[in-house]
Amino acid sequence: MVMRATLSLVALLVTAKAFASDWPQWNLWESEGRLGDNGAVVLWGKWLLVLTSGGELLVLEADAQSFSETRRYAVAETPTWAHPVPTASGILVKDEFSLALWKLTP
Q1: Which pTM does this prediction carry?
Q2: Does residue 45 lie within any of the structural domains?
Q3: What is the pLDDT of residues 5-36, one digit of tens each?
């Protein structure tokens, strides 16, 4: 019996272009253009949360078939370098000067 190991990766390149990789296939999808200088990616259920250093939170479908942006929010006016933290009450976002809880509404 042959077992095939699959490693899936979603990351932001140095150019801050989001991409997904599935070893041994390499490029499954990538975003168009730059998303910022830096970004943090968190898998949250069926969503990928991408927080750019420019204070934008992108919500992507965690689908290896394509770059599928569902929503984009401006969540900070100063640089963000930490990962977004999903909680039962909302999403915590740390910018240069503060920590904010963005509430989730149905």
Answers
A1: 0.72
A2: yes
A3: 433 444 444 344 555 555 555 665 666 666 66
